[in-house]
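Suppose you are handed only these lines of text.
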Amino acid sequence: MSKPRLYSGMQPSADSLQIGNYIGALMQWRDLQETYDAYFSVVDLHALTQPNDPSELREKTRRTAAQYIAAGIEPSKSTLYVQSHVRAHAELAWILSTITGFGEASRMTQFKDKSQRYGADATNVGLFTYPVLMAADILLYQTDIVPVGDDQKQHVELTRDLAERFNARYGDAFRVPIPVIQQDTARIYDLQMPTAKMSKSAESDAGVLWLLDDPAASAKKIMRAVTDSEGSVRYDREAKPGVSNLLVIYAALTGRQIPAIEDEYAGRGYGDFKKGLAEVVVEEFGPVRQRALELLDDPAELDRVLAANAARADEVADATLADVYDKMGLLRRV
Ligand code: ATP
Ligand code: LTN
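From them, the structure of the protein bound to adenosine-5'-triphosphate can be written out as follows.
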């Protein structure tokens, strides 16, 4: 029997991924690729909804792909590709936009938040149709599951609605995907503001641990992480958000349980604990960083791998798109 299919992606919105992306997404993707026929994209078309310098975007796209591979996504096992390399994404997004309600799209909270933040005149239409492009990503591949963070759940629900609507109106063309929402315990917070999610586009970089930071810089950021005045290494998300966040990172990277780590550091100060965590982080990310930099040293080879994977993606995507065009009554080109 063929494996069920999985789809996920990240925007190339920074030079480096941050460890929240690694713990919350890449580690799970790496495991899931064993049991699923997995598709992972670098969603560069989505990234165009934010202002970008063209040469920087190109570089960020390569860097994001290199970090997927360095973190253990295997391009021979999973289909790892760049969204814009597969033309069908933009084409299906147009088709789906014709069955998406204006009101329905207006209710997407990510759009409401961003358009409120920037103001209507600085908000582009691409930001409005962002979820429709995301639906196209997912539906082109007859996806069964979509692992995403909580903030993307509404977009996957819209994807389901669009798939069901199309299937009912024109005949079955799409599998209806299920969102798999990442556990809250896998959420990593900013080291300086431990109540805000760590994010690639954070305003200050002091609280962000970058995958490609050099080890000394990561260690320094951990030593400077905000804690509290109690002095005991104990998990309490409400009262001790800083220490709790560090414990979650420690546990995620070592595969150990939080109580065991609390025991190990009982009666010792935050300095010791942070030093221990810095060692764990350097040990985990040293090889990942090394591998990513090696891949980036040979961009031609990386581009070849991405092209071969895009060709694989094309086959599946084109078949879905042809069926959709047919069902909607678009005249076939002979
Ligand atoms: P941006 O700032 O550009 O929105 P981001 O760093 O917040 O980027 P996304 O590109 O939105 O990250 O998310 C990519 C993946 O990483 C998603 O699956 C998301 O759930 C996961 N992720 C992002 N930040 C964190 C975090 N702090 N903790 C756990 N998972 C995270
Ligand atoms: N919007 C998502 C990125 C994304 C995605 C997708 C995730 C684009 N297309 C398809 C899963 C499936 C984000 O910001 N994390």
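What can we learn from it? Strands lie at 5-10, 37-42, 79-82, 145-148, 178-181. The two ends are 35 Å apart (CA to CA).
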